[in-house]
What we know:
Elements: E1 4-7, E2 10-13, E3 18-24, E4 33-39, E5 46-51, E6 57-59, E7 67-72, E8 77-82, E9 91-98, E10 112-113, E11 117-122
Parallel strand pairs: 2-11
Antiparallel strand pairs: 1-3, 3-8, 4-5, 4-9, 5-6, 7-8, 9-10, 9-11
Amino acid sequence: QVQLVESGGGLVQAGGSLTLSCAASGRTFSTYTMGWFLQAPGKEREFVAAISWSGDAYYADSVKGRFTISRDNARNTVYLQMNSLKLEDTAVYYCAGRSTIRDIERASLYRYWGQGTQVTVSS
């Protein structure tokens, strides 16, 4: 069993930066693919970024060049550095984990989820 706890959300002005953290319990963290998803009110959960156990990173087109995903296996933590934030980045951000890497953007294939952290970008 893996438990995920996100932190780092908050209110930021457009153009600003935030770093989200996701702390994982469990000894198998280093072998897991970890992802970040967002969900805006009334919308489906969307893929943001993911990182494989070996450190390969994948991004949604909407965040390429602005967001960076990374992981620290010694700390069982995955990060999402968000720069140049836009109003449309406002959402609840979820951390997720899975043991496979196929179809990395599909939320339904992630087994473990955190409770989410709110990110609000203001003008």
